[in-house]
Amino acid sequence: MSLSPGRRKASRPGEDRPGEGRRILLGISAGIAAYKSAQLARLLKQAGHEVRVVMTEGAQAFITPLTLQALTGEAVRTSLLDPEAEAGMGHIELARWAELILVAPATADLMARLAHGHADDLLTTLCLASDAEKVMAPAMNQAMWRQPATVRNARRLAEDGWRLLGPDSGDQACGDVGPGRMLEPEAILAALDDTPGDAAGLTVVITAGPTREPLDPVRYLSNHSSGKMGFALAAAAATLGARVLLISGPVALPTPAGVERHDVESAREMHDAAHRLAQGCHLFIGCAAVADYRAETPAEHKMKKREGEHTLTLRLVKNPDIIASIAAREDRPYVVGFAAETRDLEAYARDKLARKGLDMVVANDVSRAGLGFGADDNAALLVWREAGATDQRTLPPQPKSQLAMAVVRQAIDRLRAAPPS
Ligand code: C5P
Fold first, then answer.
1. Which CATH number fits domain 23-192: 3.90.930.12, 3.40.50.1950, 3.90.550.60, 3.30.2130.10?
2. Measured from the CB, is residue 180 less than 6 Å from ligand 1?
3. Looking at CB atoms within 10 Å, which of 153, 251, 324, 347 has the fewest?
4. If you measure from the C-alpha of residue 323 to the centroid of ligand 1, how many angstroms do you get, rounded to a whole number?
5. pLDDT tens profile 321-363
6. What's the pTM value of the predicted model, to 2 decimals?
7. Cβ of 290 less than 6 Å from ligand 1
8. How far is the CA of 133 from the centre of ligand 1 (A)?
């Protein structure tokens, strides 16, 4: 396996002028999350960037151009056919001015128009006319985000070079719960430093979700894993530019943009897929809640209730330990495992590190209310092994998308510093 040592950063226009910010064109489209764009504009300015705002017509129903003008100190552009504005800085000039186009929020409609190369208003025209780096923070109702059309558009935009930040999962303004919330402005600002080149050239394999172990043709053993953390890890690795292969048990989650998904059901299917895909991969993250046992012999036909018998005995056999078997390969990648514990986090994490032959363990305290299993937030303790020395890092409670980025970053940093032998 060849890895270039040290983190590689793609050079960006602003980096040629150390200490100076970048010229950012902030596009705002018509979503309720637009009210957060004011805070985002403020944070961008505070971080030293030059900010010019373009709003779609619908966005102005949610937040006024005057608010953004007051925050950025620049006139806000709203129309393509505005002779006065065009006489100042024409739209092609504005497209050339931008080093980064950041669309937040990006609605389902805007994503559809951009995915198809439309130029029917100022914002879409600027996106089409500009060679700047392009980033968007999608925001919409969870059902809209899950629709095949939106999934297709997100994938196409990622293929076209757009970097998609989020969306996050959780409570929505419409009362729904699920994926579609715009990332918080602070997280968007932090993600602008996530250079796509950081994981370029790396292949990352991730397992996620539960497994299902058949008892008969209609029944199975499983668990409550939602798959959210594994999918967030896949999205984070893809954002950093890795080739991401996601092996997922049965979950109700859309595939993150730019990720290659392999659906499996049982632990043995997951094991086989993991070994097939791990060949030549650099980083393996085992986030799946793999069932420890399966029925020794699943019944061929549906099992019937037996009259007069009050108990049913199932004979279970142990499933393979997928992550330990990946770590035992001769051509092993850097292997990161998860540990869900209710106490003695560090001790159990270090024990798992040694017992399974892992390189890093992400330990969660699953006894903490609102965190971990099925929740949208998580906290973790990272421990890793490095030439006998040990180190660790605490990640405080935060949305799984942010935590996932921190975990992937740390794993890539460790892997580049000390690739597995
Ligand atoms: O042993 P335990 O289930 O606590 O270990 C959790 C870690 O091991 C997770 O990374 C999980 O994905 C992985 N694992 C696995 N195969 C199993 C059991 C757990 O890959 N059969």
1. 3.40.50.1950
2. no
3. 347
4. 6
5. 999 999 999 999 999 999 998 889 999 999 999 999 999 999 9
6. 0.72
7. yes
8. 39
